[in-house]
């Protein structure tokens, strides 16, 4: 039996994929035209054809699609197009940097600071809460045009750049995830003092997951203790990314006033109000000439490590010309083998324009960022044979991915990335997952929270459609293809809390929760069957706190919340067989369903988030076909709540092999209950364990507190992973169960006279210790016993 997880956006979409059974659909498929063929038909057909022997291949499948060609006009357009994300650890200056970019490119007239004295706030932090707290909560998209100075000289060239400014706080990591999923390149911002921090490491992982090339920007060069070379070493060592400076600072801290471009060996200064005038000079300050030469050589050496052409020239001591050097930096950056490092200070308006030139020079065009879709009309049996490269040609059949939703008062705003073909306002397009046609009533470009209407958009662009109902992760086509983009990684929630409206419950309560859940796949809501409480879960206390606050502000629904609790999971560690009969005879029609099979551990797929699988191995119709999905429903019901402590279950494969039905007494309900009962029965023999979230914690504090801080962490069952001492500060990285982290911020403050800082991110779920499991199970039994 074959499962096609074809057009899944999130793990829940994957879970709902039904097994495909009959080969009789083949005739339906063959007699239906491919254009606007309904996707269930196609899916069934693919399943059916996939089970056919290879010898008949070629005769019955749809012809392999011809790849669209990029025309000269496409190249002209794409060469001047960049889609970039700005990502980094919290507070490194992403929004401040983006504000400068918008100012220098003429998109905004005034610069407003994050938490500035004028109380206006930066353009990209448009939400009231973002402005109040001075942090980015949601990623925001914008676009601008930049007249870039080419490294090889000559007249300026005009580029259009789509930018997504992402939040740094780990609780909003899904915002980074979905931005990087659709962007071609990124600016990794680092603080010139703090360097690589815990979130930098997370963002680095996310960039690697989606193969996003990056240039690095060492910001805050005006701060005391700024040192770009230390940061470059950290990029090499902690992120394991070959890196080298392409600029060195002219002056540091208070004296920072410009950069030396090591590629062209020129000094670049910002002058005039807000650093608007870029002044270039061939004269490098005398005290920097030697350092510049040394760092230029280091750049070439680093490139020689990753690029054969430079390696050959370097070894033969041949001259490396400017065009060769620029081409090598670009080639190795685009190939994700190297990151060029720029320096600057966003707040002091220094070094931003050269960074923008770097974006245009070294980050990929949309045609250089290879993207594949799955042609779900073609069989592959997991071989990947139905993967099709998408080509950003304007005349190609349209393919776009919905990567983010926002629900406003006037309808849903859906951010899309155009991968292939063009889209016009009023056009009818196809949602591959739902198999529905939709008309695009409004097409807009986003400028943070402002929408700017457009008539048409081409491939390689980012825009938004207004008033279209769909889910995040849906693929749209023009109906001539059945291409589906793969899903993105959605981390598991780690904290949950009970919530209820402070006053009487109004429809606003449910409406708000439904909206937040639709917009944010890391925010989940469920009702606890025993306590009847509404439980919300998310990525951290701040994440949930923000939603509770938004309920009050945006829905006029102040809420009362319970204490944050760790979001535990249950899973099994060994296979267990089941032979289970659900039977009930109560006067009228009875209920009968027998199922036979086994459950076994299923490894989580980190890429797709898929954590469960239902496998139908029934032969000879012992369980009638119409009841097979009912058994799966029973299995999914059982997964919602484990019997150890009532936590959701993950990581199980449920295999149905055999069974028995009764002509009169069998029904869907009977088989659903049989599936549920069988699972619960086998669960008791499958060595089930409770899993808890383990967090990666990084603490930075003055060196004199090292002893107490490490002592405190050990008390909390930390596994120390790394410690680093730098000047008069130390950094310790460790892994700690989340349940041992509550109250840590207060303790750290107390231990370090308020000078210590820590950050925390979700790493994984791991089993709790056996004695703790016993205690938890006992406590749960008691709780249930008291209630019943
Ligand atoms: N000294 C100095 N401070 C800066 C610089 N750039 C930004 N800041 C300050 O750093 C703080 C954080 O800036 P943001 O731009 O909000 O940082 P962010 O990376 O967008 O933060 P999140 O989105 O919340 O992760 C603000 O107080 C800025 O004024 C800089 O170049 N030098
Ligand atoms: Mg920000």
TrEMBL record:
Residues annotated for GTP binding in this entry: 88-95, 165-169, 219-222
Location in or out of the cell: Mitochondrion
Record-level GO BP terms: mitochondrial translational elongation
GO molecular function terms noted in the UniProt entry: GTP binding; GTPase activity; translation elongation factor activity
Top-level taxonomic group: Eukaryota
Keywords from the UniProt entry: Elongation factor, GTP-binding, Mitochondrion, Nucleotide-binding, Protein biosynthesis
Main location: mitochondrion
Domain Tr-type G: 79-367
GO cellular component: mitochondrion
Pathway it works in: Protein biosynthesis; polypeptide chain elongation
InterPro entries: EFG_II (IPR041095), EFG_III (IPR009022), EFG_III/V (IPR035647), EFG_IV (IPR047872), EFG_V (IPR035649), EFG_V-like (IPR000640), EFTu-like_2 (IPR004161), G_TR_CS (IPR031157)
Pfam families, A to Z: EFG_C, EFG_III, EFG_IV, GTP_EFTU, GTP_EFTU_D2
Keyword Protein biosynthesis assigned: yes
Family listed: Belongs to the TRAFAC class translation factor GTPase superfamily. Classic translation factor GTPase family. EF-G/EF-2 subfamily. Belongs to the GTP-binding elongation factor family. EF-G/EF-2 subfamily.
Function: Catalyzes the GTP-dependent ribosomal translocation step during translation elongation. During this step, the ribosome changes from the pre-translocational (PRE) to the post-translocational (POST) state as the newly formed A-site-bound peptidyl-tRNA and P-site-bound deacylated tRNA move to the P and E sites, respectively. Catalyzes the coordinated movement of the two tRNA molecules, the mRNA and conformational changes in the ribosome. Mitochondrial GTPase that catalyzes the GTP-dependent ribosomal translocation step during translation elongation. During this step, the ribosome changes from the pre-translocational (PRE) to the post-translocational (POST) state as the newly formed A-site-bound peptidyl-tRNA and P-site-bound deacylated tRNA move to the P and E sites, respectively. Catalyzes the coordinated movement of the two tRNA molecules, the mRNA and conformational changes in the ribosome.
Protein name per the record: Elongation factor G, mitochondrial
Biological source species: Calocera viscosa (strain TUFC12733)
